[in-house]
Specification:
mainly alpha, Tetracycline Repressor, domain 2
C-alpha cells in the first residue's frame, strides 16, 4: 500500500473530525469566569485565550486516544454496523501497531505538558477522561456492554470535559448541580444514539454490534431518554435558582423545545441521533443553539 494511502487510512481511524465534541470544555471555562467573584482584568485575556486553546487541544488529544482504544476494541463488533463496517481497521486495511503508537504518544505528551504548564489537577482531570475511555471499552469491565450503564459511562465524558475547562482557571470543583446537569444532558444524547441503533438496525445486527441492545426495547429506551431530559431540567433549574440566574429559569421552555426536537429526530433520523453535531448543519437549529448560548451568557450579566 502506498505510504500516502496508509497515512490517510490511519488518520481516518483517529476520527479527528469529531473535534467539536472537545468544545464541551467551553461551558466549564465560561462557568469558571461567570461564577467568579470578579471579572478578569484586561491584561489577563491573552493568557485566558491561550489557556482555553491549550485546554481544548489537550482534551482533543486525549479524546483521540480514546477513539483509538474504541477503534481497536470495537472492530469485531463494527463489522455488523452498516456504516462502521467500512472503517479501515474493520476491513483489515491497516493494523493496530501504529494506532497504539500514536495513542501512546498523544497520552504521554498531553499529560506531560498539562503537568508542566498547569497543575496536577488538570493532569488528573485529563487522566479521568482517559480512564473513562478505558473502562468503557476494554474488557473485562467494558461498561459499553452493560445496559443503562453504557450510556451513563459514555456520557461521563461531558462533566469530565466541563471540569477540564474549569480546572485550567479555577481551584476547587464546579457546582454539583451544574456537573449533574451536564452529565444528564450527555446521557440524553447518548440514549438517543441507542434509540436510533435499536430502531434502524436489524435485531440480529444490533445485538452483534452493541451487546447492551439485546436488553433494551425501544419504548424503554425512549422512556430513559425522556427521564434523562427531565432530570437534566431539574438539575439545571436547581443550578439557576441557587445562583439567582432568572434568565435561565425563564428560558426553560425554550430548552424544553430543544430537547423535544432532538427526541423526535432520534426516533426518525438515525444519522442525527448517532452524530448529534450533524444537526448543527441545519442553519435554523444552529441559530437556535446560538440563541440558547446567548441566553446563558445574558443570565450571568443580568442577575
Amino acid at each position: 500500500m502506498p505510504a500516502n494511502e496508509a497515512l490517510k487510512l490511519h488518520l481516518m481511524s483517529l476520527r479527528l473530525d469529531r473535534w467539536p465534541r472537545s468544545l464541551a470544555i467551553l461551558p466549564g471555562t465560561a462557568a469558571a469566569f461567570l461564577l467568579a467573584p470578579a471579572p478578569p482584568a484586561r491584561g489577563e485575556w491573552p493568557g485566558i485565550l491561550l489557556g482555553t486553546v491549550l485546554a481544548f487541544l489537550f482534551t482533543w488529544a486525549i479524546s483521540t486516544a480514546n477513539y483509538i482504544i474504541n477503534e481497536i476494541t470495537d472492530a469485531p463488533y463494527d463489522a455488523f454496523h452498516p456504516g462502521k463496517n467500512k472503517r479501515p481497521l474493520v476491513q483489515k486495511k491497516i493494523g493496530i501497531f501504529w494506532l497504539v503508537v500514536i495513542g501512546g504518544a498523544l497520552v504521554t505528551v498531553t499529560l506531560g505538558l498539562a503537568l508542566l504548564l498547569y497543575s496536577p489537577r488538570l493532569c488528573l482531570a485529563l487522566s479521568l477522561l482517559l480512564l473513562a475511555g478505558v473502562f468503557y471499552n476494554i474488557p473485562p469491565i467494558r461498561l459499553k456492554d452493560i445496559p443503562y450503564l453504557d450510556s451513563s459511562a459514555e456520557s461521563a465524558n461531558n462533566p469530565i470535559r466541563f471540569m477540564i475547562g474549569w480546572t485550567v482557571f479555577q481551584p476547587g470543583l464546579p457546582p454539583v448541580s451544574l456537573l449533574l446537569a451536564w452529565w444528564l444532558f450527555g446521557n440524553f444524547l447518548m440514549v438517543g444514539k441507542r434509540v436510533a441503533e435499536k430502531k434502524f438496525l436489524a435485531d440480529a445486527a444490533a445485538a452483534r454490534y452493541r451487546r447492551s441492545l439485546q436488553s433494551y426495547d425501544l419504548r424503554g429506551l425512549v422512556s430513559f431518554m425522556i427521564g434523562s431530559a427531565v432530570l437534566f431540567l431539574l438539575c439545571f433549574a436547581w443550578f439557576a435558582r441557587a445562583f439567582h440566574l432568572r434568565v435561565l429559569l425563564w428560558s426553560l421552555p425554550l430548552i424544553v423545545l430543544y430537547l423535544v426536537y432532538f427526541i423526535v429526530k432520534a426516533v426518525k433520523d438515525r444519522d442525527a441521533a448517532e452524530e448529534p453535531e450533524k444537526m448543527l448543519k441545519n442553519p435554523y437549529f444552529a441559530l437556535y443553539t446560538l440563541v440558547l448560548m446567548g441566553l446563558f451568557l445574558l443570565a450571568f450579566l443580568w442577575r
